[in-house]
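Tutorial handout. Part one gives the primary structure; part two gives the three-dimensional structure as tokens.
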Amino acid sequence: MPENQFMDKKYFPLSSVENNRVVKIVQVAFGIVCVVVAVFWLIFNIRSLKVDGTLWITIVFLSGFGFYQVWAGLGRATRFIEINPDTIRLKKTVIFSAVVIPVGEIQKIEVFPFNLIFFLKTGKKIVLRFSSTYHETNEKVKDEILSFAEVNSINIEIVEEKI
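Part two.
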């Protein structure tokens, strides 16, 4: 049995995660209110939209912010890295879906103090930038990536940046 079969799945949030149910409900409710207000302003002020450009800006901002609050309240805006025995799932942004990187596609990994760069065999690079706020999580992720690379015989390079 290959050695990587013994490695467990590791999940690391890359930003502040609020799992409180009340907070999520408030986020969704507030997001819906923002979208409803934006639609209300659009319907009842349709004639003045031609005159006042700031109303357009308000409607776009309220709609975007409302959709983001709903998205976050539903748990879709969480940034994370999940290290499995044979894949890495990475969600770098709050909008786009997670990217799955199979171990066979990784050519090399470079580890910097505040980011990781995955070099794929296709020539593509995937960059994960860490936050300077969650230093402990960053170190845990780096340690797990080092273990992942060792178990799967992936070339890894630790780069120390000098200022």
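Part three, for discussion. The chain is about 40% helix and 25% strand. The longest helix spans residues 21-44.
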